Every structure is written in C-alpha cells, then in structure tokens.
Amino acid sequence: MRLFIEKLISGGDGLAIGEDGKKVFVARTLPGEVVDVTIDQIKGGYNLATVDALLEASGHRIQPACPYWDICGGCDFQYADAAFQAVCKQEIVLDNLSRLGGLETGSFHLEPTVTGPAWNYRNRVRFHVDLPNKQVGFLQRKSSSLVRIEGCPILTEGLNALLADPKPLFEAARKVMFANKARKGGYLEVPAIASDADVSLLDKEISLRVGGKHFFVTSEVFFQSNKYLTASLGEYVASQAIGDTVMDLYSGVGTFSAFLAKKGRRLIAVERQGQCLQLAKKHLDACEFFTDAVEVWAKRQSIQVDTVVVDPPRTGLDESVPSLIASFKPERVVYVSCNSVTLARDLQRFACEGYTTTVVRVFDLYPQTFHHEAVAVLDRRENRE
C-alpha cells in the first residue's frame, strides 16, 4: 500500500489514510513523506504498518547520529533535525488539545516553543546493570535484553563518566540487590542524577543549582532532567503566577516553589512523597508543606488562593481534583504536563468548572525523543476582561 503521511500523533507514529478510508499508523515517518508500507496489524478503527520503501523523504529527515540507534530503546526520534522535532511536538500538543480537549484554534495564545541544546542535556537517568556479566546500559528497543552502552550522546558529561568507568554503578547495584533479596533474574536498576560537580546514586544527597536556585536532591526523587531548560520552565511558570497566595500541587522537591517564592507571598506545597518535602525544606524557608496525596489533602481544605500550579504525573489529575481546585476559587491555574493527552482531558474538566485556557507553551525538554512538556494557563471566566 502506498501512503501519504499527513501528520504525527502521540507516540510519534505517522498518520495516513488508506484507500478504504481507514486510518493507518506508520512508525518512523515524517509529515509530507510518501511511503510504501506493509500492514502488520488490523484493528477495529485503524491499522498499523511498517515502511517497506521511503519514496519521498521529508527535507527534515536526517541520519540518526547515535551509534546505538535502532538497538537501544532510549531514543525514538533521531531521524528528524532538532528544530523540526520541536515543531512536530508542538503540532502533536495542539492536535491533542483540539481533538481531545475541545480547544479551538485561536481560542488561546500559543507562545513560541522553548528549545535548547539537542545533545548532552540529560542529567537524570536510570541505568540497567547486569552484575554477573559486569555490563551497564539500557534495555533494547521492544525487548527486555540489555544493550551495553559505552557512551550516550544525550547524557551529560557526569553521567557518561559512569558509563566509561562503571565501578560506582556496580557498587550501587549490589546495594539494590541486597536490599531486595526477593529479586530473581533480570537487571538491576540504578537511578542517577548529576550536578556540574557531583553525581548522586541511589540515596546520596547532592546539591544542584538551577537558574540561580539551589536544590538538594537524590536520584531517588523526581527532578526535571534537562540541564539547560529546567530553569526556563521554572521561570516561565513563576511568571504566570498571580496574587499573594499560591499553591504548588505535586510539588516534588519544590522545583517550582523555589521560583514562585517571593516576599509577602503565602506559598503552599503539597507532595505525597515525604522524602521530597524533607529535601524541599532545606532550600525553602517561607513555605507551608503538606505530605499527602493531592486528592486526599484537598478534600479537607477550605482555603482561597490566587494561583494553583499543578505538575501531575503522566496519568494526569485524579478525576476529583479539578473540582477540588475550583473550590479554592483561584483566579488562575498553571498546569504543567508531560502528557498532552491527559492534559487535554483535564482541561475539559477545568472548563466544566468555569476555567478557560488562555495560554499554551511547549518546552522541548527531551530532544531525540517524542516526550515533551507543555504548560497551559487557565483563567477563571468571570475574571477575564
């Protein structure tokens, strides 16, 4: 079957329409390309296909730079130039907001996508360690086998040093093995996060500076993993917050709270993982901390705030959370999302609570992959001019 690729969808597959009018999803294609394909799987509303021949290539198609491309499962978008990757991700976000979130084009202000260096940007990672064979790497694409990696072009210098000399990783893996005696088979996972001066493995605490803000972290807690753009994201979120009472939900180690804090502002941070808040308390003074699940904590509150910042996991907000947030009567909600599918769903829920999406901005935090970050600003309708 010969197909024309119309656009990319979430996950990165190209979308084409077959001769029968049925949607066909084709991996590793770019908008505007013409391909001959073989149908691999027939589904109810769509088909899955693989490329047999690339007949007309996009001008943005390039040869993947990594020697482990197509073996390692870490990156999935190295076949497009970095600038076009960012364009495609913005289009995916907008498509999701339109189809799934019901947002009409032009109903909100779209700010320029924020980009940075496309290589050596990632300062947080989870290594896979094969202790018996003394090998370190990542899992193979669509497999549970280990790919031995000697150097990763998206990792920072500090993390690549561990691949060059993996003895610290072997030591950490032994600790993981002894701590989990019930584990049988498989590889041991060792999380790591690197500052410019130090590396944390497991629960080792290090200091990390981001855009003039000082944080304490370990590799076991969540922290944004782009060395170059985390500060831009934090500063942007802070620039969108209004008022004297601001709530930071799913606050982690207080990444956004650090940028939101200012004299005279009441700042409330809620995070279910106690370890995160213990670290946050070391660099945040004037902040009220609550350790609980957001959907549980919010039900017990009766408070009025000006801005609520949310940065939930990929699954998005619990169904009850938008209405609970609305009960606080914030003038503005700033939603930070790593999954524009669940973002779109949640924006619909906020719309039912009287909030209108006014601004959207995409951050290309994960070049060479289809992952992205998006920030949506929502305003309470009666407060809009």
Summarize the structure.
The chain has 385 residues and is of the alpha/beta class. It contains nine helices and 21 strands. The chain has helices spanning 82-99, 157-164, 167-179, 230-240, 255-260, 274-280, 294-297, 321-327, 340-352; strands spanning 2-4, 7-8, 14-17, 23-26, 34-42, 46-56, 109-110, 124-130, 135-139, 146-148, 188-194, 199-201, 206-210, 213-217, 245-249, 266-270, 288-290, 307-310, 332-337, 355-363, 373-380.
Tell me the count of domains: 3
Stretches where pLDDT falls below 50 for ≥5 residues? none
Number of strands: 21
The fraction of residues assigned to DSSP E strands is 25-35%
Largest sheet: 8 strands, mixed
What does the model show?
By secondary structure, the protein is of the alpha/beta class. It has 3 domains: 2-61, Nucleic acid-binding proteins (OB fold (Dihydrolipoamide Acetyltransferase, E2P)), CATH 2.40.50.140; 83-117 and 228-383, Vaccinia Virus protein VP39 (Rossmann fold, 3-Layer(aba) Sandwich); 124-217, no CATH class. Helix content is 23%, strand content 29%. The chain is built from 9 helices and 21 strands. Helix 1 (82-99) packs parallel to helix 9. The mean pLDDT is 94.
Key terms:
385 residues, 9 helices, alpha/beta, 8-stranded mixed β-sheet, Rossmann fold, OB fold (Dihydrolipoamide Acetyltransferase, E2P), 23% helix, 6-stranded mixed β-sheet
